[in-house]
Design brief:
Layout (H helix, E strand, L loop, with lengths): L1 E9 L2 H17 L4 E8 L4 E8 L2 H11 L7 E10 L5
Antiparallel strand pairs: 1-3, 1-4, 2-3
């Protein structure tokens, strides 16, 4: 398995949450190889997403979609793909 790890700065919390719930999550759930996704709002208006896929190719395809303009509600800080070494 591989994961896409997304880091954002949240510029508008309400708009970002609505977009996440109405667009991002439903779209990601339909992506080939989707296993699970977790989106976390942290301190200092930072957000993190970890989205797990069955294969590296599936994860990279979604990474490429994420790197497109995220809109004004968030600023995309980083998007990485990594191998899931272990889970619990």
């Amino acid at each position: 398995m591989h994961a896409v790890i997304v880091s954002v700065t949240i510029n508008d919390g309400e708009e970002a949450t609505q977009h996440l719930r109405s667009v991002i999550v439903p779209t990601v759930k339909q992506a080939p190889g989707f296993v699970a996704g977790y989106w976390v709002r942290g301190e200092d208006d930072k957000g993190r997403g970890t989205i797990v896929f069955e294969s590296e190719d599936d994860a990279r395809a979604v990474r490429d979609q994420i790197q497109q303009d995220p809109g004004g509600a968030v600023t995309l800080d980083s998007v990485e793909v990594g191998e899931v070494v272990e889970s619990a």
